[in-house]
User: Fold these one by one.
Assistant:
Number 1:
Amino acid sequence: MTLFLGLVSCNSSATVAEESPQSRFLKSVISLGNDFLNVFTSFGDMVGGVLGFNTNTKKSDVGAYFKKIHDTVEGTKIALEKIVSDMRSEGNPNAEATDTAVKKLVSETLSKIIEGAKTASEAIGDAGDPIGNIATDNNGGAV
């Protein structure tokens, strides 16, 4: 019995040693493709889970989400500008440095978020059909 297992294990290692470079390459390409698929599937699930969107979510809900982002970030921008204004009126010596930091934050980040959220909200509008139903009316924009 032990001799038989020894021969079987020797034979299986010979099979592995005989595996062609082409076969190994094809297996690695298939494995790489599966890994990419797993990564992108996980990323899509993660984004959908974080945002709370799925194929049954209505387009109007997505539009409302981006409108809320717009309003919240716009409110943050206004509040930061008010803080700087109040600091100046109180004669705070840090007002100038704070103003510079706020202007940089607003111009480099907040304004872009506000504009992007506004564009997305307006583009989506208040359509009541699910986001998973993108190609029913106009073939998804195809001509």
Number 2:
Amino acid sequence: MRIPLPTLLLAALSLAGTSCQKQNDPAPYVAPAPVYDLYSIVHYPASNETSGTNYSALRLTGEAKQESGRVVLRFGTGAEGRERVEFMMPGSFTPGKPSSFGYQSLPAPAADAVQVTYLLNYTLNPTTQITKTYRADKNLTEGSLVITAYDAVHRLVSGRYEVTFQDVADPYAELSPNQPARKAKVIVGGEFSNLPIKP
């Protein structure tokens, strides 16, 4: 059977148009995997002793959520739950512009500053678990949270942080009950990138 030439030309043009359209379609967006690191340090000024832990990224989890008009960032040691730090932001981020936020602190916690809560858990013996909680507004606190990048379209945030809780009781005092009480600085810091903000 002979097909008229105009019909063949129309079919060829239609196929070419479909192929061109497929080539021009944008590839679906694939969000980069989030990355975290976390470290903690305990420093005893009186004896100038320091101990610390730097966690592997594989042991860490992170989360960002929109809660009551604020963004809450949470980072921790996953299922083991040894350490966790939470930042309650006072407001939103500015796309394309690095932003630095101070923390609430004694003697006069500022309402527009970041509230930080840090939890430390460790095992004293097979039947006793110790939990220490530090809040920025209940301690003399130093440091900052810096947002280094914010993708408003895909709701991805990156940044770094360090918080120092000054002049607190030794968080590991229970491990040495017969030793004199000591004061310490507790320092928690880390970085994060491509953390998705959930609604």
